[in-house]
Write a structure and sequence with these properties.
This protein has 196 residues and is α/β, with parallel strands linked by helices. The protein has one domain: Rossmann fold. It contains 8 helices and 9 strands. A 7-stranded mixed beta sheet has the order 5-4-3-1-6-7-8, with helices on both faces. The protein has a two-stranded antiparallel sheet with strand order 2-9. Helix 4 packs parallel to helix 5. It starts with 7 loop residues before the first strand and ends with a helix. The relative contact order is 0.20.
Length: 196
């Protein structure tokens, strides 16, 4: 009698601000479908750890203040599309600073709390698209809870402290090379050509 393989559980967390910075270094503004990115990461996980895997997709960002009507409307549509694609969206708040600029609040805390919660629910793999060292305490606790922690980041990002406290790094460039480049929204195509 053959033993049934246990279904592995993984969860991918995307910190929008940090992810966009990594992508922009490669000449990419974003994706026509973030779902395509999540699916590629999930495929890489299955290739390396086992095809019997269920993956949760999580995205973290913030809406601008409502008085910025056009931007608010665009961002609202963007987050709604993510939701339609089966991606769980968690939103922090944006606040206007005295100089007129806006700043995000609560996003990092939402990510850290979810990393901890998923690890307590015994998720086998916690994958964070961010190199922000502020997440290290949550990632350390996830490791202590038995989760295998992976950070997605560019090869150009030093992130020594983050790398030291996780199980492994999945380099953004390696993911991008496996994807159909028709899904990319480019900022500067010549930078992307340097990856190839």
């Amino acid at each position: 009698m053959r033993l049934a393989r246990r279904l592995l559980k993984s969860s991918i967390f995307i910190d929008e601000d940090n992810a966009k910075r990594h992508l922009q270094h490669l000449g990419i503004e974003g994706f026509l479908s973030w779902l395509a990115f999540y699916k590629m990461v999930e495929n890489i996980l299955k290739e390396n750890f086992g095809s019997s895997m269920k993956t949760e997709f999580n995205f973290y960002g913030a809406l601008p203040p409502k008085d910025m009507e056009k931007m608010y409307s665009m961002r609202h549509r963007f987050f709604s599309k993510l939701g339609y694609d089966g991606i769980r969206v968690s939103l922090g708040e944006c606040h206007r600073l005295p100089d007129g600029s806006i700043t995000q609040k609560q996003v990092d805390l939402l990510i850290a709390l979810d990393i901890l919660q998923y690890s307590m629910y015994k998720y086998d793999y916690i994958i964070l698209f961010s190199s922000d060292a502020d997440f290290v305490p949550a990632l350390q606790r996830a490791r202590n809870n038995g989760s295998h922690t992976i950070a997605i980041m560019s090869k150009k990002s030093p992130a020594f402290f983050t790398k030291k406290h996780i199980n492994e790094v999945l380099y953004l460039e390696d993911i991008i090379l496996k994807m159909d480049n028709k899904t990319f929204i480019y900022t500067n195509k010549t930078q992307l050509d340097e990856i190839n």
